[in-house]
Amino acid sequence: MDYTIKILENGYLYKNYITVADINPLNKTITCTDAFHNQRMFKFGDVVEVN
């Protein structure tokens, strides 16, 4: 699924268009791929908004 998310990281607010690859509720992480096929992992607490 493709989403636009806003993430708070190091005091900066980032907005990314991503494809969610995995949601791990035990570790509270979201693994995703951006438009350039870079894989990133975010913690639930870092995500500010999902559209």
From TrEMBL:
It comes from Bacillus wiedmannii. It comes from the Bacteria. This is YolD-like family protein. Pfam families: YolD (PF08863).
